[in-house]
Write a structure and sequence with these properties.
Helix content: 25-40%
Shape: globular
Order of helices and strands: HEHEEEEEEE
Structural class: alpha/beta
Number of helices: 2
Largest sheet: 5 strands, mixed
Number of strands: 8
Length: 136
């Protein structure tokens, strides 16, 4: 019974301490990152989506960089066959690199807002993933 009261007291103090912290002003910079690496059928669907996009865009090297904004930088390095890479940047001050070594890999980086950085590397065969970033 004493240990329950002690744990309850510690929890209460921790909660009160969190509530007393002042929130950051709305103008403070921040970001959100979502990194996804599907497996199985989801990975197959994602890979096929990249391949269809590459065919639609007539991309022989199966890599595409699409930028709108200022001060953005991107690079793609591929060795092997059947690799697909896509970098989409909207906003300013982003940087992204994708390196693929192997076969049948697919990766996409999508950056919005400002000042996001991404470095992705896929080594081996059949890797799939994407990263969605937003900054303010």
């Amino acid at each position: 019974m004493v240990s329950t009261r002690i744990l309850g007291g510690v929890f209460g103090l921790a909660l009160a301490g969190c509530m007393l912290q002042t929130p950051a002003p709305a103008a403070a910079g921040g970001s959100v990152n979502i990194y996804v690496t599907p497996k199985g059928e989801s990975a197959d669907a994602f890979r096929k989506g990249f391949q269809l996009y590459s065919l639609y865009r007539n991309l022989k090297n199966e890599a595409r960089v699409n930028q709108r904004g200022s001060g953005n930088a991107a690079g793609v390095s591929q060795s092997g066959s059947g690799n697909n890479a896509l970098v989409v940047q909207r906003g300013k001050g982003h940087s992204a690199t994708i390196s693929q070594n192997g076969n049948d890999n697919a990766f996409g980086v999508f950056q919005f807002g400002k000042k996001q950085k991404a470095d992705a590397a896929q080594n081996g065969n059949g890797n799939v993933g994407f990263l969605l970033q937003g900054g303010w």
